[in-house]
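[agent] plan:
  1. take the single chain provided in the ticket
  2. run structure prediction with default settings
  3. attach structure tokens to the ticket
  4. add a short note for the reviewer (M.T.)
[agent] executing step 1
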Amino acid sequence: MDLKSYFENTEGTGILATADSDGTVDVAIYAKPEVIDETTIAFVMKERLSHQNLKTNLSAAYMFIEKGEGYTGKRLYLTKIREEINSSVVQEFIKKQPVIASPKDDSNKYIVFFHIENVYPLVGDKT
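[agent] step 2 finished; step 3 output follows
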């Protein structure tokens, strides 16, 4: 199954991990990514710690745990490639995402694009 179909058809919980330039790690609950193509995904981000970390360290990891029994899902290893702020593209992506914060939130929002370096199963070897 390709990633676009996988994320469109699979329920679960996503977690994004980033680190600052000193290596201090942060993890945060994140919605499913928007799959641009087989090597690129994007997330809507606010000006919070995850986004701040990506200014000095372009590497990130996204873990998706499928809803249900057991431990099934995917691990994506990522490199930030670009971002846009408060554009019409950001607004289109927001419409597709579940509301996590107040709809009245008028803080800056970014669409952050990542190159997918590797995709592994949630548990087990990297194959």
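[agent] step 4 note for reviewer: The radius of gyration is 14 Å.
[agent] ticket updated
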